[in-house]
Amino acid sequence: MKKYITIGFGILFCACSNYLDYKPDIKMVVPKSLKDAELLLNDYTALNEGYPIYGELGTDDYYLPDANWEGVTDIDQRNNYIWADQPYRNVIQWQRPYKVVYLANQVIDILSKLDRNNEPEKYNRTLGAAHFYRAFAFQQLLEVFAPAYVPSTAASEMGIPIRLDPGIDGKSTRASVEGCYQQILSDYLVAANNLIVNESIVGRPNKAAAYAGMARAYLNMGDFPKAFLNAEEGLKLKNQLMDFNQLNPNVTFPIQRFNVEVLFPATTTVSAGMNYNNGLVDSLLIKSYTTGDLRKTVFFQESDDLAGAFAFRGSFQGTSSSLFTGFTTSELYLIKAEAGVRTNKIPESLLAINTLLRSRWDKNLTYTNVAVTNPDVLLPLILQERRKELVFRGRRWSDLKRLNQDRRFQKTLVRKIKGVEYKLLPNSLLYAYRLPETVIEQAEIPQNKR
User: Fold this and answer.
1) 0.70 exceeded by pTM
2) Burial category of 29 from C-beta neighbours within 10 Å (exposed 0-12, middle 13-18, buried 19 and up)
3) Residue 98 is inside which H or E element, if any?
4) 53: domain CATH number?
5) Number of folded domains in the chain?
6) Where do the RagB/SusD domain residues begin and end (predicted)?
7) Please, which residues have CB within 8 angstroms of residue 427's CB and are 6 or more apart in sequence?
């Protein structure tokens, strides 16, 4: 079975129906049982790791000194940093999520031919997990390679290819942004209806994670009532937060992997530019953490190479080589807070933001509740706390894209390398990264608009 799957991936990564010359051995066993379906979902490396880093590479949360930028050997990642509109040859950002889609589609196809009544609990958990993984992979791709969701244009803007069957020889076409989000929401809903609350297998999603996926999607779509509702549903199931007073800031990575806040663990591909030794945290962002806010000492450490600069070490993955981009309860509190203020649920919004911030506050100092009731004042405050809490967690690129739709929060990003200044303007077409040229050439699908 393992050889069969490997061949499938090799063909899949060609992204074209003409690459089927090599035929698998007819004696190979094709996965077809519930046990086979379960085993396909036991590959943590394939399903939980290797999601796109490109979005975060373009954010304003960090910067690279000239020497550090020149030291990045991956030319595509160097171009990402300055938003250079150059062809990309590295297909890993595209391949890895579609490998997840392929696996999920295999599982869903296997289950469609089985009687769920034979082992209903196991069947439902496996079905829910497969739909979750597919939704998550589509979501990660959409946030990087498609434009922001705008209600008036979402039905006509190009999204990503949506593959819903395990076949590897069908022609790929790009669905609309609207169609992509609807498929993502549909998959997450199936997941929420089938997953269990307490999943014992590390790395597998639970029911709260499915609600988190829907909450994140609805937030990106600007559907704040539904974002609030799904964040609330997720928090009803899982609402634990770490007490930062109990973390040890003297260790290299103070936050434990698979901690109580993690609903679903996922990480990006490796990035030399954003790791602890190269990327330095934006100075204004650092200054925004006030005295008593333990996130400053837990998330950051003074750079060994540049006086007054800080490096990020607050990963939920316990490493500096890749970024955590999964779901957490802390993100749900922030979605509830933002969606709450946007839908005039001020008391609920205040409760959510204060619950989160109190868990990050030095217990030796008095915490003063956020008590602002004016939405025009409270919303910017919550958005700032969102950035401070979810720093290096795969959310900033998507947030910049969606917040650019509101003139109050538009921001021009600026880089300076070797005396040359580069800018990324609000609502720029560059917010949808170019698809890898290999994909364009072999799959014959259109490139993003420029």
Assistant:
1) yes
2) exposed
3) helix 92-112
4) 1.25.40.390
5) 1
6) 324-405
7) 148, 404, 405, 410
